[in-house]
Structures are given as structure tokens and as C-alpha cells.
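Q: Now give one record:
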Amino acid sequence: MSFGKNPHVAKAQAAELKAADAVDVPARVLAFREAANQWERAASRENPGKKRTEYEQHAARNRALADGSASGDLPEEAEGDAPPGDDSDPRLLN
């Protein structure tokens, strides 16, 4: 482990990726809550300032995503791979 690095940041980012790849709602909610917890831990290790505020905002965003997923609403990233308004048939693209 190197000095000066906050290990919880990498763990939080990994949990966010896990949430993005989750196939069912309970797994997604659990991963978002884990990411929020890791962001809180990362914020607690920082001095008051820009990074601490940024980490706290990440934690709040992940908690909001977890609450939204628990209520049945999917975050925009998980709704689909196609951008909104793109109704083209993938078989016709070639």
C-alpha cells in the first residue's frame, strides 16, 4: 500500500461498477449502498475541503440511486444501452 492514497476511493469506485453491472434490483441496491458507505469512509479520512465535499456528494448520490432502485425506478445508466430516442432496429444497421 502506498502512502498518501485513500484506499476507500478505489473500493467505492469498484462498488459503483458492480452496481452498474448488477442484473437484479436487490444486487444493485446493495452495491449502491456499499459504494455510498465506502465514499463516506473515504470522506472521513480527508481533511475538510474540496475532496471531502466531493466524496460526501458521491455518497449522497449513491444513496439516492439505491433508494430509487429500491422503489422500482431504474437509474438512467441501467435503463438500456441505446441513447434516448434511438428506435432503430439493430438488424438494419449493417
